[in-house]
Amino acid sequence: MLFIVNALIFIFIFAPLVIVVIQSFTNENHMGFPPESYGVRWYAYVMTDDDWQNSFMNSLIVASIVAPLSMIIGGMAALGLDRSDFRGKQAVFSYLIAPMVLPHIVLGMALFRIGLFLDTSEGFTLNATDSLWFYVVAHTTITIPYAIITIGASLQTLDRNLEEAAQILGASYFKTIFFITIPLIKSGLIGAFIFSFIISFDEFIVTYFLATFNQTLPIQIYSTLMFQLEPSIASISTLMLALTALLTLVLMSRGQLVSFGKIIK
Amino acid sequence: MSKLTFENVSRYYGETCAVADLNLTVSDGEFLTLLGPSGCGKTTSLRMVSGFVEPTSGRIFIGDADITNVLPEKRSIGLVFQNYALFPHMTVGENVTFGLKMAKVGKAEQETRLKEALKLVQLEGLVDRMPRELSGGQQQRVALARSLILRPNVLLLDEPFGALDKQLRDYMRAELRALQIELGITTIFVTHDQDEAMSMSDRICIMNHGHVNQIGTPEEVYRTPANKFIAEFMGQSNILPANIVGSGGKMVTIRVAGATLEIDAPSYMDSEQPEVLIRPERISLQPPKGTGAKAKVIDKQYFGSLIEYAVESQDGTTLSVTAATNNSNHEPSEGDMVMLDIDASAVFVLPQREASHRP
Amino acid sequence: MKANKRSMTLLLPALVLYLITFTAPLVVLLVLSFGRFDKSITTLGFHLDGYIKFFEPTYLRVFFDTFFISVYITFFCLILSFPVAILMRRVQPFMKNIILFCVISPLLTSIIVRNSAWMLVLGNQGIINQFADYIGLNDVLRDMGLISRFAGLPLMNNVFGVVLGTVHVYLPFMVLPIYASLSAINPSIEESARNLGASSMQLFRNITWPLSLPGVIAGCTLVFILSMGLYVTPVIMGGNKVVTIPMIITGLVRDRYNWPTASAFSVMLLITILFTVYVSRLLQRSVKV
After folding, report:
1. Chains with 3 or more CB pairs closer than 8 angstroms to B?
2. Which CATH number fits domain A51-264: 2.30.300.10, 3.30.420.40, 1.10.1740.110, 1.10.3720.10?
3. Burial B161-187 (b: 16+ CB within 10 A, else e)
4. Which domains are seen in chain B, by residue range?
5. Are the Cβ atoms of A264 and C10 closer than 8 angstroms?
6. Nearest chain A Cα to C259, which residue?
7. pLDDT tens for residues B166-216?
């Protein structure tokens, strides 16, 4: 009984995704399941079409900058929280992970407002809205909490004696971090990198506020979707699924999926 | 190598006192053990030497240099952790030369000193192994080599045998002590195990609740403990109420457990009813003849090389007695009546006040 | 100590970034929410126009729609999560990891991708409707006047579609906390209950459910909060037939530049969420005693 119920639940979870993958190989002009003929014409289309290419490159560029940035800033914060002791530390931690529970729609419109302000303010006009650098800033804010929690979980399993041993052997504070701490929390750092990359790559609502012409992939999918249900959506979705699945496998091999469970707690 | 001095060192955590006014000098080349139950302040003291805990007040010196405010990495101290703290992502060789690398010692010298250090701890040939591939004993040697390669002024050992099984522990104990004597390095050893402390130390410093209770050679703290706590902590003991029934010159006569004994009068005798310490191995059980104190065997446990008895004397006192198992000894059974033969020189009158007592 | 200060400086980059990208925007939002919007011009000040608008029947109704849709989503997530969490607890570690992978991996898939997948399944030309056409079900329903002549089964562009799409997206957020609670239960408790003759239902009602409450509360809070703020799924799966507060806010900002009203609505949304968190804390405390 329990197994049957679970089987149904997992069909519910995966069936739509499987259908997308099958649909993406249609050779027809329109969606229809099962496709009447198969081929890769829509893959060829999304890979050569300028709009799709641009939005894909935008997403890739943004996520590739966000991931290391979030890993570094989040990693420093996680280390700082783990190693220091001061009044109000718990409050600082709550503050640093608050973007996780704040509705992204609110954060998106608020950042849009700041962007508009930067666009028009005299003296230091920055062109924030519709610019990739501002997407990076926004996405970094969204992903840092995930980095902090992932890296923080790694730090908690780290034996502090190892760092003390290094220090007593003559390693300074920063040398200890460089030679001992970082190598030993490598899995957590990789986890933070990949989570941040995926979250940035998939991010919709905040970018939706900021973007007009400079679209990212999710926004391009959305606007295509609102216009018509074209098979190109299935193809690009399948490509995104493949990328995500690959990165998820890397995470799993590093034992970091468990720490994602911790994020949710 | 140099001596190490604590001068009025205290450490408080908020209101709680971890170490109170510690004054202690470890001589050059000495092996000193900080012994006590957990929470007695021994680990805090060690961590103050290594620099991971700052004293609330007082100063710590190595030789004549005040190191109280020196960063841990600048202290030139060797430290072996309870779990060895070998860097799991580095080979044995990288672990051992880590300190040299931090000190920017040249590659060639690193190689020579690595060979020397590994030879010293008999680990030649394991240079390229990872720590997880080593046995507990080997890991400990790597930890030792990693500390000693820097030729530290002082070596700190934080319960280094806790993770080893008994046989290996005994072996490593002897080996470590031999190495320490060979190098003549000033060493502080922290443990809660009195056997370890007695078998290895030049001197033992017994701590309780942040206070030093006694400092002395293993024999001194065993035979003439400064207080009841130490008497009980250092091995098995009978602590019995006694009555002074007579005194003459340098001797006093006491009655304890139904026996009358004439012992040396201690200088600090300040009570007519002192408590006395008699170690179980200093009492022997004889067949119940003559006029000596009688007792009844109420329990007998056999441990191979020795037998532990519990006996009840005629005045109701329970004593424990240990006897070596050999054919010449009288071996009574449970329920038998025996005569207690107490060695008068083994009776030690415990000082009444908890004040620190230094023979 | 020195190391403590050094460690605290490591917090600086994140705090400085947040000041600019998190705190400042929210403060701006709060200030704007008290502004006035007149003839497409926003003037600052202390006006309650936006908040008053929130309590107009039209918008209050949208708020309650959003609220109840979120409640439905939370409820169905809860029902679907329990079997998965219970199964995860029963199987061997290897199978558990596979289930964990199956639960988490969709979470790392773009919401857009997952929602468009549902369009392929539930839409008028979707698989289910094609199948219903094929077996003639839709014709029967059309003859009975239950569905319109040109439409199929109403599986999306309504609350059902929104709830289903969102449950699919947020299910993992419910499974994981419940699993965490369940795995903290000592298996011997269940075994001894079984030993004492408890049936499966009794076991669930008296042991599993009460002990899993902390996870249930955490999961429900999370799913509810996230649902209240979700924009994209109601748009895609609701097809203009379902209106939620985030859609109103987005429309006000993107189409009309009515910042004061949008900001006031956002503040009200945040207050709802903070209140939910507060209630959840109270509940957590009451189940712990």
Report:
1. A
2. 1.10.3720.10
3. bebbeeeebeebbebbbebbeeeebbb
4. 4-233 (3.40.50.300), 238-347 (2.40.50.140)
5. no
6. A113
7. 888 888 888 889 999 999 999 999 998 888 899 899 999 999 999 999 999
